[in-house]
Design brief:
With about 90 residues, this protein is an alpha+beta fold. It is built from 3 helices and 4 strands. The chain has a single domain, classed as Alpha-Beta Plaits, CATH 3.30.70. The N and C termini lie far apart (about 35 Å).
Amino acid sequence: MGRIALSLLLLASLAYAKEWKLHINGMHCIACTLAVKKALMGVSGVQEAKVNFKNESAIVIADDKVTLRMMQDSVAQTGYSATGQK
């Protein structure tokens, strides 16, 4: 019974998840990628973050409570800036 409830909870959270495409200014190495990913994953409601330094981008899956401003503020703490859209 626990597995069924967990599966339903997971499906419900994915139904309300949104995908954000962010441009991260200034990344140039793997360490940059890891710092930005850690910052994005630290935002409450972010479920997944894929960061690529080569094209200075991030794809973020987050619940509907997460705002662009929340992610921008978190990324700014690492020394980078982010712009984006859903």
